[in-house]
Amino acid sequence: MTRATLIFAALLVVAAPLSLLAGRVWVDPEVTPNAMAILAELRLPRALLAVVIGAGLGAAGAAMQGYLRNPLADPGLFGIAPGAALGAVIALYIGVASAWLLPLFALIGAGGAMALLALIAGRTSSPAHGIALFTLAGMMIASLAGALTSLAISLAPNAFAMSSIVTWLMGALTDRSWADVWLAAPLTMAGIVLLWLAGRSLDALTLGEQAARSLGVRPGRLMALLMLSTSLTVGSGVAVAGIIGFVGLIVPHLVRPLTDKRPSSLIVPSALAGALLVLVADVVCRLLPLVTELRLGIALSLIGAPFFLHLLLRMRRGLA
Amino acid sequence: MTLSVQKLTVTGRLEDVTVTLQPGQITAICGPNGAGKSTLLAALAGLLLADEGEVRLDDAPLSNMHPRERAKAIGFLPQSGEVAWDVSVASLVALGRLPHGDAGKFAVAQALAATDLGDLAHRPVSTLSGGEKARALLARVLAGEPRWILADEPLAALDLAHQLAMLRVLRAQADHGVGVVLVLHDLSLAMNHADRVIVLGERCVKADSAPEEALSLDVIRDVWGVEVRWLGEPNSRALVTS
User: Going by C-beta distance under 8 Å and a sequence separation of 6 or more, which residues neighbour residue A316?
Assistant: First the structure.
C-alpha cells in the first residue's frame, strides 16, 4: 500500500463515523430519541452513498487525466454525466420517476452517451488522432445532452415538474435510501476495479501514444475499458445523486503530490480521497445554517470552479 | 534472427521497400525530409499497418505476434520525447518493464548504469537537462531488454558530447547482439558510426550497404540534390559542401 492510500484510508476511517453524528440534529446515541433509526435509515445510507459516489468520481478523474495526459481533464468530458442526467430528466419529464426507474433511465442515458462516443471515436484509422477526436466527440455529446436537458426543462408540463427536474439536476444526497446504495455501490465498485486494471496501460501512455503501443498497449481496448468503467462509476453516481461536478478534477490534484505521479499510482488513493471529499462536503452542507440545505452539487461547484481557475493560473505561470 | 520486410507499401509514404536487418549491427536510415524514414521505422516496429508487405521477425509475421511479445522483442524510442507526468527517472525507466509485467529491478538498475544515470534515479524528470532526459528515455528502452532497438532521431536534439555518449551506449548494445536501427539526419554521424546505411529517397530505397558506399557523393547528389565532399579517413569523416 502506498503512502497516499494509507493517508486517505486513515482519514476516511476517522471521518466516516463522525459524519454519522453530524447534521441538523446532532445525534448522541444515548440521549437522542430514535437515534438508531436516524443512524440506520438516514445517516448511514447517506454516508455510504457519499463514499461510493466520491470514490467513483475520484477514480474516474484520475484515470481520465492519465488517459488524456492532461491534468485538467474531468470525467465530465466524456459526456457520460450529461448523458446520464438527460436520461434521468426524461424519466422526470414523462413522470415515471420511481425509486428504480429514474436510476435506470440515467444508466441508459450514460450507456447511450458512451455508445455514441464509441461510434464516433472508437475506430479511427490514425491512432495519433484518437485522443483528440475522443475529447472533441465527448464535449459535443456533453453539450448535445445539455441542450436536450434544457429542452426537456423548457417543455415541462407544469411548474412542479420543472422544479423537480431543476432541483434534481443540482445534485444532492438528501432523502436517499438503502435502495440507492444497493444500486450504486456494486456498479461503482465494478467500475473502479476496471479503472484499476487500466492503470499499467495508462502509465505507458505517459510516453505518448506511439511509445505506449510499442510497449504492447492496445489503444482500442484501453478506450473501451475506460468508457465502460467511467460510465459505470459516473453513470451510477448521477443516477442516484444527480450531477456532482469537479470531484474528478480536484481530487487527483490533491493526491498527485503524495504519489510518484504515475497514473496507476493515483487511482486507488483518488478513489479514497474522492470518497472523503464528497463525505465531508455533504456534512458541511448539512451543517450550514441555511433555511434550506445547500445542494451538494452546488457546494462542490463553488469549491471546484475557483480551484480550476487557480490551476489555470498556476499553469500559466509555469508556461511563462 | 533478422528483422525484415518485403515489398512494403504504405500509400503515399513508402513504395516497394525491401530490407533485411541484421542483429549485432548499427543500421542507420537516412534520407531527406518526407522520404519515409519514420514510416519505415514505425512499420519495422509493428506500429503501422502496411497496405502491402509484411514485417517479419525471425521469419514469423510481426502482425501475428501478441502485442506484448512483440514489445518484449522490439524496443521503440519515438522522436517526440514526451513524458506527460513528472515521474522520477527510476519510474520512467521502469516503464520499459511493462511488457514483462514485472518490476525487473536488475534490468532497470543495469539500464540506469549503462546510461550513466545511477545518481539521478530519484530525480523528477522535469529537473533533467535535455541530454539527461534523452538518456533516461533510452534507458527506458534498455530496461525492456529488447533484441531490437529502433530509435527515431535519437541524436537530433543533443550536443556533441551527448551524441557520442548515446552512440557509445547503442554500440555496446550492438556488441551484445542487439540489432540497433536509427533514423539519422546527420550524415556524418551515420557515416562514422553505422555499420550499414539505408538511404531512402522519394519513398524508395536508393542505397543499402556499408556507409562509404551508401553515402557516396553520387548517392548524396542523386537523393539530396547537393554537391558535397567527404574529408578525412573512413570512420572519422566530415561532410563539407563543395
Answer: none
Per-residue confidence band for B86, with pLDDT thresholds at 50, 70 and 90: very high
Give chain B positions within 8 Å (CB) of A213.
47, 67
Q: Do B95 and A263 touch (CB under 8 A)?
A: no
Q: Please tell me the number of Cα atoms within 13 Å of A125 on its side-chain side.
A: 2
Interface contact flag, B76 A214, Cβ < 8 Å: yes
- For residue A190, with 0-12 CB atoms within 10 Å meaning exposed, 13-18 middle and 19 or more buried, which class applies? middle
Percentage helix, strand, coil for chain B under 3-state DSSP, each rounded to 5: 40, 30, 35
Where are the alpha helices (H) located in chain A, listed in sequence order? Answer: 3-21, 35-37, 44-68, 80-93, 101-121, 130-154, 159-169, 178-197, 199-205, 209-214, 219-241, 247-255, 263-287, 296-319
d(CA A303, CA A25): 25
Q: Which residues of B touch A205 (CB under 8 A)?
A: 84
- Residue in chain B closest to A204 (alpha carbons) equals B95
Are the Cβ atoms of B96 and A215 closer than 8 angstroms?
A: yes
d(CA B16, CA B203): 8
Q: Is this complex scored with an ipTM above 0.95?
A: no
Distances B125 to A70, B128, B218 between C-alpha atoms, Å:
17, 5, 44
A207 and B78 in contact by Cβ < 8 A?
Answer: yes
φ/ψ region of A63 (left if φ > 0, alpha if ψ in -120 to 50, else beta) reads alpha
User: Which option is the CATH number for A3-319: 1.10.3470.10, 3.30.530.20, 3.40.190.10, 3.40.120.10?
Assistant: 1.10.3470.10
pTM of the model: 0.90
Q: Measured between CA atoms, how close is B217 to chain A, in angstroms?
A: 35
- The CA distance from B84 to A262, in Å, is 10
3-state SS assignment for residue B218: helix
Rg from Cα positions in chain A: 20
Ordered by start, the domain boundaries in chain A are: 3-319
Q: Which residues of chain A are under the pLDDT cut of 50?
A: 125, 320
pLDDT for position A129: 64
Q: Which of A281, A299, A279 is nearest to A43 (CA)?
A: A279
Distance, in angstroms, between A133 CA and closest chain B CA? 19
Q: Which residues contact A226 (CB under 8 A, 6 or more apart)?
A: A63, A64, A67, A195, A198
Q: pLDDT: is A131 or B231 the higher one?
A: B231
C-alpha–C-alpha distance, residues B60 and B54, integer Å? 10
Packing angle between helix A219-241 and helix A178-197, nearest 10 degrees?
160
Domains of chain B by range and CATH?
A: 3-241 (3.40.50.300)
Task: Report the C-alpha gap between B147 and A242 in whole angstroms.
Answer: 53
Pairing of strands B55-57, B196-201: unpaired
Distance CA(A57)–CA(A59), nearest Å, equals 6
Query: If you measure CA to CA, which chain B residue comes closest to A68?
Result: B84
Grouping H, G, I as helix, E, B as strand and the rest as coil, residue B217 is helix
Distances, alpha carbon B204 to alpha carbons A291, A307, B4, B198, B209, in Å: 77, 54, 15, 10, 15
